[in-house]
Amino acid sequence: QVQLVESGGGLVQAGGSLRLSCAASGRAFSRYPMAWFRQGPGKERESVAAINWSDSTNYADSVKGRFTISRDNAKNTVYLQMNSLKPEDTAVYYCATSSAAYAGPLLQSRPYDYWGQGTQVTVSS
Fold first, then answer.
1. pLDDT for 84-118, tens place per residue?
2. Which long-range contacts (CB under 8 A, 24 or more apart) does 6-12 make?
3. DSSP codes of every residue in the chain
4. 52 and 62 Cβ atoms separated by less than 8 Å
5. pLDDT per residue as tens digits for the range 35-44
6. Strands 3-7 and 10-13, how do they pair?
7. Separation of alpha carbons 91 and 40, rounded Å
8. Beta bridge partners of 18
């Protein structure tokens, strides 16, 4: 059973930084794509960033240049470094992974089968 546990959320002022972590367990980690999604208050879930087995990455336009996704296969963990945070980044952030080994860093939610419970990020103005 694949499990994903997010951590690192919190309250930060606009312009600040946070690093989210997602620890995965239950299967081999390195061969599968990982992604971050978010859902703001009153909004639909949207993609943020994705990374695949070869460390290829993909970002939503709204976070390009501010957020960085990375993975540490030795720790079975994926990270999301968030800099220059804005109030519109306020959301619950979810980690996700796919059953498709060696897939690309896709930003669509459909390929992702396993989801964490989310961590709240609040950016004050």
1. 999 999 999 999 999 988 888 899 888 999 999 99
2. 6/93, 6/94, 6/95, 6/116, 6/117, 6/118, 6/119, 7/119, 8/119, 9/93, 9/119, 9/120, 9/121, 10/120, 10/121, 10/122, 11/122, 11/123, 11/124, 12/85, 12/121, 12/122, 12/123, 12/124
3. --EEEEE--EEEETT--EEEEEEEESS--TTS-EEEEEE-TTS--EEEEEE-TT--EEE-TTTTTTEEEEEETTTTEEEEEE-S--GGG-EEEEEEEES-TT------STTEEEE---EEEEEE-
4. no
5. 999 999 999 9
6. unpaired
7. 4
8. 82
Task: Report yes or no: 49 and 57 within 8 Å, Cβ to Cβ.
Answer: yes
Q: Which two tokens stand for residue 101?
A: 């080994």
Q: 18: which 2 tokens? A: 């946070």
Place of tokens 């909004």: 43
